[in-house]
Amino acid sequence: MPQRSGEAVPGEIHRLMFEAAACYGRGEFAGAGARCERVLAHREGFPEALHLLGLCRWKGGDLDGALNLLTRAQELQPADAQLWHNLGIVREQSGDTSGAQAAFRRAAELNPRDAESHYNLGVTCEALGDRAAAEAAYRRALRVADRHTGAAAGLAALCEAQNRLEEAQQWVDIALRGNPADAVAGLTQAQLDFRAGRYTQTAARLEAQLKCPLSPVNLSLTLGRLGSAYDRLGKHAAAYAVFMRAKEVLRDMAGNAPEDSVYGLASANRMQRLFDVLIKDAGAEAREPATVSPVFLLGFPRSGTTLLDQILSSHSRIVVLEEKHTLQDILNEHAVSAARLAEFADCDGATLQHYRERYWARVAEFMPDRPPDKLFVDKLPLNTLLLPLIRRLFPQARYLFAVRDPRDVVLSCFMQSFEPNEAMRHFFTLESTVRYYTAVMGVGLLALQAFPQCIHRLRYEDLVEDIQAEAKRLLAFLGLHWEPPVLEFHKTARQRHINTPSYHQVAQPIYQSARGRWQHYANHLQPVLPRLRTFVEYFGYP
Predict the structure, then answer these.
(1) Could you give the CA distance from residue 493 to residue 497 in angstroms, rounded to a whole number?
(2) Nearest CA to 391 among 455, 337, 438, 342?
(3) Which of 319, 320, 307, 321 shows the shortest CA–CA distance to 489?
(4) pTM listed for this prediction
């Protein structure tokens, strides 16, 4: 680039950049930034100055300014691996996880020997739900640096979540040797101890971890898992106190649930009000025979749907899609208001067929290798509130409706550290949990009364009491023959990735320790119990 009049000579630019780098290394970010600005005043497109000034803006909390400067520098130096890496960090902190993933991937391609780029790529892949890609990235980082604490901790957590416990322990040992205070490794070790029944050891580790600085996510997880350990130790008052703290952290981080989201309270209440309108004449225009209609596995979170998923998946003639938003097209277009729901109720046959085709297209996206000759089960518990829409769309569909003592369900939802999406944000208090349960399950009660012939209701307590008898009734409802492997569902669970908090529970044989847990917290539940009475009585609980 030609020099402009008065522009600093190359030696002066070199001196300023040398001083800027020295200032940055000492933490004097304002001084470093000022020297970079002097360089840019003379040579506007000097990429090294743009890069370092971007880092100074980042250190000063100006993410937008940092992003702009680093992007300009990257356009000038597209083969600079460190620049791509730094751009990934700023994109991630700006909330652009997909953009960060792309930047870290490019950095790792340009410099395959940089363990940090592989590690950060793994973190972003995991944040975006691609755990297979995250695991591959963590393993690449560890091939470069076999004692990389972050990658070992991340890989340990993934292995534990997939029930590969021995490998998880190997990696967590490496991570904790590198950094005994690593939060992710500490959480994973606590979970391994918990699963082995070492509850006192679990509690001690998590209590110690609370004394260290933790991110809001890790703080909420630490508190939640400490509450579970206290619960198993019979320290119910202490357990409730830390569950409350965990929920407060999540609420401060994510905010309360929006009232009018697709899976929100207002949507559930609209479904109840318009239930009869939505199911009128359902089936008049159906083109699909029952043999190709989906089976929907519904209920409410923490009602045993994950256990049913594993039992069904152990049958050779069944394939289960786990918790994917296959009905999103209809929801986006019609669940947003009472008027749009009424429009859906009046859809003609051609429009309904169009929506069916879009449903199956989404299924194909989520499960491209779905065997067409197997019975397809669509599992998403909160689709209970969409039952009238599903009934109109697939009038010959069948439903598996999981039921559990409502008091245990509400308590379990409150105790769990769910990812705080729009629906799970209803579980921040017992009061809001009960309000959401009654709204969603109110739709379920209407369906059980309106078309009971299509619904197989299964109580969690009956299932754990006699799994063989209940599984046989379940398969008979579906028109399938008995297969003994369904009793070995825990083996199936160990081979699958399960996306719910129940992953470690369904990977073991049937247990009954969760029955009646609500009684230990009856004093805390007392104010909300009257609102659950209708459901307790309808489902036959004492």
Answers:
(1) 7
(2) 455
(3) 307
(4) 0.84
